[in-house]
Amino acid sequence: MKLMAKYYVALAVAIVSEILGTLSLKLSAGFTQLWWTLASIGLYLIMLYCLSYTIRVVPLSVAYGVWTGAGTVFTALLGVMVFHETLSIGQIAGLALLVLGVVALNRSGESEEETEYEALQIEDEFQMDEKFR
Q: Transmembrane ranges (predicted)?
């Protein structure tokens, strides 16, 4: 599991940068505010790099599910706190279902925790190199 920690840290950075990038995107006012526009682009680039690093090893269904679920929930909550947006009962229920889905994805992946995904990834890369020689 220690080997996997760096990939989950990268996933956390991807989530945070996506949330901040989305908030910056709103503040860019349709790309009319230069610094907020540049901030959103930079944060999205960081997010893409970190997410691509994560999915090299973490199963795509888990990484993408956690990334989208956490990003959606925290962005919605920050929208309420920062921009004074409101959430309907249906939206709150939807966010709760997203949280349950993310928890289910992570729980289903716990049985695979012993699998050395990093070693498998290296082995896959080696096999791909052999195919193209």
A: 7-28, 34-55, 62-83, 89-106
